[in-house]
Specification:
This protein is of the alpha/beta class. It has helices at about 25-40, 75-85, 95-100, 105-115, 155, 160-170, 185-200, 215, 220-235; strands spanning about 45-50, 65-70, 90-95, 120-125, 125, 135, 175-180, 205-210, 240. It has a single domain (about 65-240), classed as 3-Layer(aba) Sandwich (Rossmann fold). The chain is about 35% helix and about 15% strand. A hairpin with a 5-residue loop joins β5 and β6 (about 135). The longest helix is centred in the last third of the chain and has 16 residues, at about 185-200. Bound molecules: thiamine diphosphate (TPP) and iron/sulfur cluster. The site of thiamine diphosphate has 18 residues, from α3 and β5. Keywords: Oxidoreductase. This is Thiamine pyrophosphate protein domain protein TPP-binding protein.
């Protein structure tokens, strides 16, 4: 008997196979998101927004209304859509450069204002689409195109701890977590809780997903997984940082 892979109903099959590099973590994150959209039965209410960066390769990934924005501007675009029609469930999908560098002011303001949107941010420790330059999430000592001797924190500063920052500035109804593509079930659980938080209208929701970029890391399969599991999770511990309190929907 032929066994077919279980593909989320919300995926757009006409655009598969997808365009990410082999071994890239984006596909796993979007699989988790697709499964969550199916399980919550919200495909007809979801609007998906993606940034410039490798995340833009997902502009036609789902069978939902989608918008691809300028670099760093996905958060305010999705805030605008949500404010225009609060019945919609909006997802802002971006890289660490898009969310923590050029778009950091938008993330800070949306989290502080408690906009009822979901931000899903992919932390692959580099600017991937442009060839692997240092990002806010590049780790101390990590080599990139622009830190060939490794990131020296005295020169290039310390990495951005995004979920820690968002959990500190967001309101009581916010949901904040950090997942990893190496722990798929947990990552999916966090994405589901983030979307449930938006559906219940409790507050801002934010999930950072630790992800792989073998192309720019220049790693083979084993090295890729080891870097994610051994190096990245030490610097960026996965888990829930904030769950909504006192505002049950
Ligand atoms: C306003 C503007 N500045 C710079 C760029 C060039 N640029 C394109 S993608 C990118 C970085 C992408 O990195 P990240 O957001 O981490 O996403 P990734 O590719 O790693 O998924 C940059 C700087 C641009 N397109 N627009
Ligand atoms: S360059 Fe990196 S992040 Fe971009 S698609 Fe390839 S593996 Fe994924």
């Amino acid at each position: 008997m032929e066994v077919l892979p279980k593909i989320p109903k919300s995926w757009n099959l006409e655009t598969k196979p997808h365009k990410f590099c082999p071994g890239c973590g984006h596909g796993l994150i979007l699989k988790a998101l697709g499964q969550v959209i199916d399980e919550l039965g919200i495909q007809d209410r979801v609007v998906f927004g993606c940034d410039i960066g490798c995340s833009l390769l997902s502009w036609d990934f789902f069978n939902v209304d989608s918008v691809q924005t300028h670099h760093g501007r996905t958060t305010p675009v999705m805030v605008g859509i949500k404010r225009a029609n609060p019945e919609l469930i909006v997802v802002a999908y971006m890289g660490d450069g898009g969310g923590y560098a050029i778009g950091s002011q938008h993330l800070v303001n949306a989290a502080t204002r408690d906009d009822k949107i979901t931000v899903l941010l992919v932390n692959n420790t580099n600017y991937a689409m442009t060839g692997g330059q240092m990002a806010p999430t590049t780790m101390p000592g990590q080599k990139t195109e622009t830190t060939p001797y490794g990131r020296d924190v005295l020169e290039a500063g310390y990495p951005m701890m995004g979920p820690e920052m968002v959990s500190a500035i967001s309101q009581d109804g916010a949901y904040v977590a950090r997942g990893s593509v190496a722990r798929f079930r947990k990552l999916k659980e966090y994405i589901k809780k983030a979307l449930e938080n938006q559906i219940a209208g409790r507050g801002f929701s934010f999930v950072e997903a630790l992800s792989t970029c073998p192309t720019n890391w220049r790693t083979n399969a084993e090295q890729t997984w080891a870097f994610l599991e051994n190096e990245m999770t030490k610097q960026y511990p996965p888990g829930e940082l904030k769950t909504p309190t006192g505002k049950e929907g």
